[in-house]
Design a protein that fits this description.
Carbamate kinase, eight-stranded mixed beta sheet, 13 helices, globular, binds adenosine-5'-diphosphate, binds aspartyl phosphate, Aspartokinase, AsparK_Bifunc_asparK/hSer_DH, Asp_kin_monofn
Length: 516
């Protein structure tokens, strides 16, 4: 749950990336093609285990399939450098057929030498969490009956079978996972640390399967567990931060191995190793995006690609309004605001390494690779930009504070919500308003008057009362707070007005005419 605060203190080298027509499905053989080209305070308004396990043995492909013939694939020769990161999310690798498609996509760019980052297959992370919660209360002898555990097991076994791989690729992992669930059942508790260890099995299995499959079709690949190759994090289980030491460590390991023996690295997304505990940590839900950008920066790669199940970053969440359109270009700042204010498509922290390393990020659709996707860079031409995307964050609690005694007071908001309210009530009248939603208008704040005029016109026509508005320090975000129940219709109405009505450009043109 997020919190919004209203203080009413009185007074208050870039080319389209499209696989060739020949790119596509592979089964048992590599195919090639050529690339067609290659928070916080805003003025007075505020919106506010054992990690060494499963180490890949030296000289092992990490997959149990050794010595497969090299048919081709991104044809690395000594001297060639790793060039891109290709991250595939859970939906992109949800089945054997999807893994074959993804292998086809990688092979469609033979001149690239990718580092592949994978998430867990499909909904495996959610299923692991549910299985863990059930294990707490079900008793050791009933662990084998937990529905989610059986779904996970069946999916992974089915996948290796369908890909023609030996079950030994994941056998030990599944065994270890069942032992862990029994341990949770025995202890009747699931700590944050154990939870991270539990969910790590998802990425550890998907990467082992995929690396084994690449090797089977003759493309040399090497599986890596991120926590074993230098992903050092804070010990904030469930939401760990990547520490600086990660960059040189990851670069040394991946680059060093590649130079000695060029095999496509297939790295677990989402996972790290706590610097104090040495235990497996996770980077927050959707954290594989951050793994990808961290590797991109560490190795100074040309581009970071995040392959999803949508045509790129869209003008709004397609689950809220299906007529969302692809946003072709974004800046790192826009993408960060979008993610931070609730767009599930990117991990909120993921743009930081890309921005620091000035490495373009491309969001692509693994189900529709010909779609151009979204290109995210440091800068873009904002001249014609009005609104870029509309983002919704629901279930927000708003604090409405009226006081004359708060000027010069700061720091109180950093504490817990209950404490904050208690503290504030000493000096102000506080209303805690729940079930609110933040609608963020990501766009060109230099056109804020135009955007807000249009937005308020739409909202007034829809009979919606805006309860707070925040612009503040961000150059790309204007936030409105409305009641939760009104938020989705608002998104739809705003989307229609900004992205489906023809008159927006005309307004820009009129404005340009007035200015120029
Ligand atoms: N503005 C947006 N643009 C694109 N997708 C969005 C947006 N807001 C929400 N989404 C959702 O994000 C999903 C993609 O993100 P995610 O599930 O994390 O991808 P993956 O697991 O493939 O990395 C889409 O399927 C879509 O439902
Ligand atoms: N599997 C993890 C990490 C991740 O990034 O997944 P995805 O790329 O499918 O959002 C999760 O579900 O959170």
């Amino acid at each position: 749950m997020a919190t919004a605060v209203r203080l009413a203190a009185a007074p208050r080298r870039l080319v389209p990336l499209v696989p060739p027509a020949s790119a596509g499905h592979v089964r048992g053989q590599a195919r090639f093609g050529t690339r067609t080209g290659p928070r916080g305070a805003r003025g007075f308004s505020m919106v506010v285990a054992d990690s060494t396990r499963r180490r890949t043995k030296e000289g092992d492909d990490g997959d149990g399939v050794l010595g497969a013939p090299v048919l081709g694939g991104p044809a690395a020769e000594l001297g060639d450098q790793l060039s891109v990161v290709m991250k595939f999310g859970g939906s992109s690798v949800s089945s054997a057929a999807r893994m074959e498609e993804v292998a086809g996509l990688i092979l469609a760019f033979p001149e690239e030498h990718p580092v592949v980052v994978l998430s867990a297959m499909g909904k495996t992370t959610n299923l692991l969490l549910l299985a863990g919660e059930k294990a707490v209360g079900c008793g050791v002898i009933h662990v084998s009956e937990i529905e989610e555990w059986n779904t996970i097991k069946d999916l992974h076994i089915k996948t290796v079978d369908e890909l023609g791989l030996p079950r030994s690729v994941i056998h030990d992992m599944l065994d270890e996972l069942e032992q862990l669930l029994k341990g949770i059942a025995m202890m009747k508790e699931l700590t944050l640390r154990t939870r991270d260890y539990l969910v790590s099995f998802g990425e550890c299995m998907s990467t082992r399967i995929f690396a084994a499959y690449l090797n089977k079709i003759g493309v040399r690949a090497q599986q890596y567990d991120a926590f074993d190759i230098g992903f050092i994090t804070t010990d904030d289980f469930g939401n760990a931060d990547v520490l600086e030491a990660t960059y040189p460590a990851v670069a040394k390991r991946l680059h060093g191995d590649w130079i000695r023996d060029p095999a496509i690295p297939v790295v677990t997304g989402f996972l790290g190793k706590g610097w104090k505990s040495g235990a497996v940590t996770t980077l927050g839900r959707g954290g594989s995006d951050l793994t990808a950008t961290t590797i991109g920066k560490a190795l100074g790669l040309r581009e970071i690609q995040v392959w999803k199940d949508v045509d790129g970053v869209l003008t709004c969440d397609p689950n809220i309004y299906p007529h969302a359109k692809t946003v072709p270009y974004l800046t790192f700042e826009e993408a960060t605001e979008l993610a931070y204010f609730g767009a599930q498509v990117l991990h909120p922290q993921s743009m930081r390494p890309a921005r620091e390393g000035d490495i373009p990020v491309r969001v692509k659709n693994s189900y529709n690779p010909k779609a151009p996707g979204t290109l995210i860079t440091k800068q873009r031409d904002m001249d014609k930009v009005v609104l870029t995307s509309i983002v919704l964050k629901s279930n927000v609690t708003m604090l409405d504070i009226v006081s004359t005694r708060m000027l010069g007071q700061f720091g109180f908001l950093a504490r817990e919500l209950d404490n904050v309210v208690e503290e504030l009530e000493k000096i102000a009248i506080v209303h805690l308003l729940q079930q609110r939603a933040i609608i963020s208008l990501i766009g060109n704040v230099r056109r804020s008057s135009l955007i807000l005029e249009k937005a308020f016109h739409v909202l007034r026509k829809s009979g919606v009362n805006v309860q707070m508005i925040s612009q503040g320090a961000s150059k790309v975000n204007m936030s409105l707070i409305v009641h939760d129940s009104e938020a989705k219709p608002c998104i739809k109405a705003l989307h229609q007005a900004f992205f489906e009505d023809e008159d927006v450009l005309t307004q820009v043109e009129v404005e340009n005419l007035l200015v120029g």
